[in-house]
């Protein structure tokens, strides 16, 4: 006997409650400044419409800004390294 009644806690099959499969959320991509900017816009919209408390939005914004800074620093570091390598080759 299979009972296909599905709830948040799981599914009953042959009289046994089996745990629910974890719901996968879409993979969050934050590898570029553009992707971080998109996420900041989402956070802003959620806070503006009242879906997300402003205190939580502020925390997320802080973390996203820190991430954007690290991406920017990493990009600059790569560019400087390439310029230094070109300079060494010309010398």
Question: Can you give a write-up of this model?
Answer:
This protein is α+β, with helices and mostly antiparallel strands and 91 residues long. The protein has a domain at 30-91. It contains 2 helices and 3 strands. The chain has helices spanning 33-48, 54-90, and strands at residues 2-6, 10-13, 16-19. The chain has a 3-stranded antiparallel sheet with strand order 1-2-3, with no helix packed on it. The longest helix is centred in the last third of the chain and has 37 residues, at 54-90. The model is unreliable at 1-7 (pLDDT under 50).
Q: How does the SSE layout of this entry go?
A:
Blueprint: E1 2-6, E2 10-13, E3 16-19, H1 33-48, H2 54-90
Antiparallel strand pairs: 1-2, 2-3
Overall mean pLDDT stands at 88
CA-atom Rg in angstroms: 23 Å
What fraction of residues sit in β-strands? 5-15%
Q: Provide the helix percentage.
A: 55-70%
Descriptors:
alpha+beta, 3-stranded antiparallel beta sheet
Give the gist of this structure.
The chain is α+β, with helices and mostly antiparallel strands and 91 residues long. The protein has 2 helices and 3 strands. The protein is elongated.
């Amino acid at each position: 006997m299979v009972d296909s009644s599905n709830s948040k806690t799981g599914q009953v099959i042959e009289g046994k409650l089996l745990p629910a499969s974890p719901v996968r959320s879409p993979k969050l991509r934050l590898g570029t400044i553009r992707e971080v900017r998109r996420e900041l816009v989402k956070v802003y919209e959620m806070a503006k419409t009242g879906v997300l408390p402003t205190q939580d939005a502020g925390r997320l914004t802080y973390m996203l800004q820190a991430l954007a800074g690290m991406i920017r620093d990493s990009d600059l570091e790569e560019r400087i390294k390439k310029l230094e390598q070109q300079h060494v080759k010309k010398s």
